[in-house]
Amino acid sequence: MDLSTFLASLLYGVTIGSALILISSGLSLTFGVMGVLNFAHGGLCMLGAYLGYSLMAWTGSFWLAMIAAPLIIAVVGVLMESFTIRPLYGLNPLYQLLLTVGLSMVLANAVLLIWGPDQFSIELPEYFQGYVNLAGIYYPRFRLFVLLFSTLISVLLWYGIAKTRWGIVIRAGIHDIETVSAFGINIHRVFTAVFAVGAGLAALAGVIIGAMRAINPEMDLELLTSALIVVVIGGLGSFKGAVIGSLVLGLLEAFGVQYFPGLAKFTVWGAMILVLIFRPEGLVGAE
């Protein structure tokens, strides 16, 4: 592999990793704060991709799709948390897991009912098409935008978690939710906000992924699997772990295709197995 190919693969891996941060951070925080491993997370991402496609087709505005789809899915997340997940708090966690599996099936069938089995792709504006020259490497403009935009969102998420009052509540909730409730904080409101943010981030990632590759009714399982691998590698309940795990997975996919074209998926699953064997809490662990 020459230097230009290496750098192109590095850029691609970081870009894929930055998009995965949007999916995995919501999943990880939902588990860390609420103790709910949301198996409907991939379905929310898929629904965001389809909504983004429809909004782009109806209005011709990519930015409207980027803004409106996550907001709509965040409202869907609020309804899901309030009316389906909340009644199961305090019960066996297996009930929540089975519920979210059922919700994922509902979302998948809703997509089939509304959009059918055909594949779609979100059309990019003209200014995102083509390539940009980066030190002799011709890299797709939209992928570069994804890298920069996802990095910005990640920094804003970090700031919100590390520096704001809500972030303090979230971090405290990860460690001891009972103490947070004892200070008079409405913990149900915290749960709803975390779930809504996670759903909105998943939908945002769905719009981005839908503009990078085809949208299809089976993408929810692939996205959920990637997010689960990320949080296993990085550590459940850790935003920092979600960032690190996403970058690791993105780089493994990019370089796995180059070095081990027939075993690219094996490198990803192999890394997860090694983490589970030697560091089951993840590279970072719960914060």
Characterise the protein shown here.
This protein is an all-alpha fold. It has one domain (3-216). It has 11 helices and 2 strands. Strands 1-2 form a two-stranded antiparallel ribbon. Strand 1 and strand 2 (137-140) form a beta hairpin. The N and C termini lie far apart (38 Å).
Write the layout of secondary structure elements.
Elements: H1 3-34, H2 41-59, H3 62-85, H4 93-115, E1 131-134, E2 137-140, H5 141-163, H6 165-175, H7 177-182, H8 187-212, H9 219-234, H10 239-259, H11 264-278
Antiparallel strand pairs: 1-2
Key features of this structure:
287 residues; mainly alpha; two-stranded antiparallel sheet; 75% helix; 3% strand
Summarize the structure.
The protein is mainly α. It has one domain. Helices cover 75% and strands 3% of the residues.
